[in-house]
Design a protein that fits this description.
The longest helix is centred in the middle third of the chain and has 36 residues, at 258-293. The termini are far apart. β14, α16 (445-458) and β15 form a beta-alpha-beta unit. By secondary structure, the chain is α/β, with parallel strands linked by helices. The protein has helices at 9-15, 29-35, 55-63, 82-106, 121-130, 161-174, 178-181, 194-198, 225-230, 242-251, 258-293, 306-317, 357-365, 381-384, 416-429, 445-458, 488-495, 512-515, 530-538, 548-552; strands at 3-6, 23-26, 41-42, 113-116, 134-137, 185-187, 203-206, 214-215, 297-300, 321-324, 351-355, 374-377, 395-400, 435-438, 466-468, 479-484, 500-502. Among the domains are: 161-215, no CATH class; 395-551, 3-Layer(aba) Sandwich (Rossmann fold). It has 20 helices and 17 strands. α4 crosses α5 and α4 packs antiparallel against α12 (306-317).
Length: 562
């Protein structure tokens, strides 16, 4: 008997008659819910959870490009593409890892597995590993899978053409008076701290609207000659192969199938091939930028974005100080994407801004950042929290929309709507009838709003909540409590003294050991299932365990010595 994987309801209807002897599996949870009455099963039931994951990927993400002595095997003149592509490699490979085990498990009971020729890229990549045991079917038309379990995210691309043209024009114009406005510090823009840094006299902010307080990028298709040596067309290191990765995993007592190891190695080669042109351009743009503006310090809002990593390496090479003032608020230890330099001895950034005493403790106790590299500041988010004492609540509760951890193969991206709906159901079952779901702003916001409306309509939920958008802080004074995952929203709510209940079902991808690596929360202060969530709501609990002063301490960024 054979198995067949479908990605949407209409696709199933089109091909079910052609495969009467097959058992059908849905590649995403929404399709499973719509077809389970017809005998369709869910591809990712709990029996495919991977024992080693995500521990193995967390280890590998920091070490896949390092030899036994810790040196980056791809580093050339202190610059390496490896950490720059790591986030993309692992968000992509985590999908393939999950699908590898899901398909492999099907072969315990079935001779062949059928996949659509138009399946998600992850399935197409993974199918190659199984060669003749995977066959392909073609439906009448190519369908979209909006509820996909395997999204292609964190792709390495240049900014939009509109952004590039605007920045380049501003760069040319500003060059006329650049000598008059050079400052000691360049700040890569982020909405959280833009206003604070704009009040300083020693900073230029990327693409700021006032040209005398801004810096701009001279984007060009032309690249610097050395970029072709640092970022060649193909990975040239003979040391990087499946044996190198297999040996590295074995020393940490992780056992992978040879096929899985080769799938990982092919992911690295694929991601690099897709991105080396952009990496060359990024290197050239930032090299010219630092030469043109001649700063002493550069401030970064993130530690894993590819262009920030390249820029930080260039700055370090040029002996320009780098400061990480992370956007949002870090609640848990970052195990997978906290990078070190080429010899694995020094952190990628020179200084790390801890927002408040609680985050300083996180950096000291769990992130292992030396105390002399940490400066404590007050989070700029606090200044965005309006002083609103109105207690005329509009909502009993707000549920934050969910984004599962895509770096954990045991997470279920396709269940993010289900997780949110489950939380709304629990709240409504307790007699709380005024509920809103807060959608994260972004380029797909309108599409996401419609998806939530469709899911609430299709579910057996009798109550449909409000769908709200915009800055989160404007709703904090309008709700009695908030339910959501571990995110910066937890920090914002706590600073406004609004109870925030962390609901982290295992399908969202946060591990139990991660919960031990936090200052703000622990396992006992959060809900792992709907029963625990209901109990926390009944008892009117909150997940945050630290005092208000430890969240809000520190100098404002406008006064901080960088």
């Amino acid at each position: 008997m054979d198995a067949l994987i479908v990605g949407c309801k209409q696709e199933f209807k089109d091909i079910v008659g052609d495969f009467p002897e097959c058992s059908f599996f849905a590649s995403n949870y929404s399709t499973y819910v719509s077809l389970k009455g017809l005998g369709v099963k869910y591809l990712y039931d709990s029996t495919i959870d991977i024992t080693n994951a995500p521990n193995d990927l967390e280890f590998l993400s920091m070490n896949w490009y390092r030899n036994d002595k810790g040196f980056d095997i791809f580093s050339k003149d202190l610059i390496s593409f490896a950490p720059a592509i790591t986030r993309r490699v692992f968000s992509s490979f985590a999908n393939d890892y999950r699908n590898y085990y899901a398909i492999k498990k099907l072969f315990d009971d079935y001779d062949l597995v059928y996949l659509s020729k138009y399946a998600e890229l992850s399935f197409i990549r993974t199918a190659k590993v199984f060669e003749n045991r995977v066959k392909w079917y073609e439906s009448e038309k190519r369908y979209e899978y909006p509820d996909t379990s395997s999204p292609e995210r964190t792709v390495i691309n240049n900014p939009s053409n509109k952004f590039i043209i605007a920045s380049k024009i501003a760069y040319i114009f500003q060059s006329l008076f650049i000598r008059l406005i050079r400052k000691n510090t360049l700040v890569l823009d982020d909405w959280t701290y833009r206003e604070e840094f704009s009040k300083r006299d020693d900073c230029l902010i990327s693409n700021y609207y006032l040209p005398w307080k801004a810096f701009y990028f001279s984007y060009s298709r032309d690249v610097m000659p050395e970029s072709k040596l640092i970022f060649p067309k193909v990975i040239l290191s003979d040391a990087f192969n499946s044996g190198f990765i297999k040996d590295k995993l074995s020393k940490e007592h992780f056992s992978w199938d040879q096929d899985l190891v080769e799938l990982f190695v092919s992911t690295v080669f694929r991601v690099y091939t897709e991105s080396y042109v952009v990496l060359r351009q990024t290197y050239s743009v930032y090299s010219k930028l630092l030469s043109h503006y001649r700063p002493n310090t550069v401030v970064f809002p993130g530690e894993s974005y590819f262009s920030y990593i390249i820029a930080a390496q260039i700055a370090k090479k040029c002996k320009i100080k780098t400061v990480l003032a992370i956007d949002g608020y870090q609640v848990l230890k970052e195990r997978a994407l906290f990078f070190y330099d080429y010899n694995n001895k020094n952190l990628l950034f020179d200084k790390y801004v801890a927002f408040g005493e609680s985050q300083r403790k996180l950096y000291d106790k769990h992130q292992n950042i030396p105390s002399n590299q940490v400066v404590v500041a007050q989070s700029p988010i606090i200044n965005k929290l309006t002083a609103d004492n109105d207690i005329n609540y509009k909502y009993d509760a707000i549920v934050m929309s969910y984004l599962p951890n895509q770096h954990n193969p045991n997470a279920r991206w396709d269940q993010r709507y289900k997780i949110t709906i489950d939380a709304v159901k629990v709240i409504h079952s307790l007699g709380l009838n005024s509920v809103a779901v807060k959608i994260k702003d972004g380029v797909n916001r309108d599409k996401e709003i419609q998806m939530y409306k469709n899911h609430f309509t299709d579910s057996d939920q009798s109550y449909c909540p409000d769908i709200i958008i915009g800055e989160f802080n404007q709703y904090l004074s309008k709700t009695k409590f908030i339910v959501g995952q571990i995110s910066s929203a937890l920090f914002e709510a706590s600073c406004k003294k609004v109870p925030y209940i962390v609901y982290e079902p295992y399908d969202n991808g946060v591990t139990d050991y991660s919960l031990k690596e936090s200052i703000l929360i622990n396992r006992d202060s959060i809900a792992r299932d709907t029963h625990e969530l209901g109990e926390m709501i009944r008892r009117k609990e909150t997940s945050v365990m630290v005092e208000y002063k430890d969240l809000t301490s520190g100098l404002p960024l406008r006064e901080l010595q960088l």
